[in-house]
Amino acid sequence: xxxxxxxxxxxxxxxxxxxxxxxxxxxxxxxxxxxxxxxxxxxxxxxxxxxxxxxxxxxxxxxxxxxxxxxxxxxxxxxxxxxxxxxxxxxxxxxxxxxxxxxxxxxxxxxxxxxxxxxxxxxxxxxxxxxxxxxxxxxxxxxxxxxxxxxxxxxxxxxxxxxxxxxxxxxxxxxxxxxxxxxxxxxxxxxxxxxxxxxxxxxxxxxxxxxxxxxxxxxxxxxxxxxxxxxxxxxxxxxxxxxxxxxxxxxxxxxxxxxxxxxxxxxxxxxxxxxxxxxxxxxxxxxxxxxxxxxxxxxxxxxxxxxxxxxxxxxxxxxxxxxxxxxxxxxxxxxxxxxxxxxxxxxxxxxxxxxxxxxxxxxxxxxx
Length: 368
Ligand code: PMP
Fold this sequence. Notes:
This protein is 39% helix and 15% strand. It is of the alpha/beta class.
């Protein structure tokens, strides 16, 4: 009665953490993949104003023109109509953009190369459309090595997906790494999907930029993290018309349009100065890295708000179970973020006092 498609994905890894966590009274919750600040004030006001001014109907599927226009400016797009001229349209989050992209690019059995470790939907949405995830290995330092990507290419490969800064590792691509993988995509005539949802959260170097390099590039980005509005379900896709047209067609019959209120409200977010928030997160990054690096094998995150240490003994699920017994919620890699279960993800998008408590538990457990 239930499709093989539905059964092909398994959310048990995260669910186990949630179920165990639900029993805790006041957990130290470092498992959450969203910023710990709320929507910025001007956005909250603008959303209320959008409702009151009756912006509550459907919008055109591609998104309201003023928002597209702001995004065109941000990305330096001319909005021509040629097949390989670049434009932008508004999606239901980056999750929505990715789903549409996969559906537009892949037939059943086609492969998309994704990093390992990966953000779980990269793998699972492929399974949902009967396409196949293939992996390029980024262990042990979570860097992209273009030879690893090249080695994973087969005649069925349709696209290479890259993500920077990375969820779950917090590692950012260097411009040279991104350029090398773009060159590879061009040489092999593959789509290049670039998920840059954490683009403003880069702490040590400028964000690696994929614009204007290769015509078969699709950039996916959104407002969940920077605007502090993950519940608004607002994202966008920048790419060639030949692809966007197909994605929009699919959006029209599935998501229909991104939430109207969110689209209108987002117009007021483009002048926000993110620097103070990004600085706060940088300090949290510094704190958690220096607090853990003595006892854990861990890479220093350069972006996003995650750190991805190796579990003592290399068994992340077992270690996370101990953490949860000690009131600390973090997520093991196995089943969720990787094909292997050696590491676990900590989100440092949390109040400083919770980070201090979390670090105390982790360092106590690793010593015992
Ligand atoms: N990509 C990455 C790397 C993410 O971490 C997330 C959210 N956790 C998403 C995409 C999905 O974001 P959205 O809310 O825009 O669907």
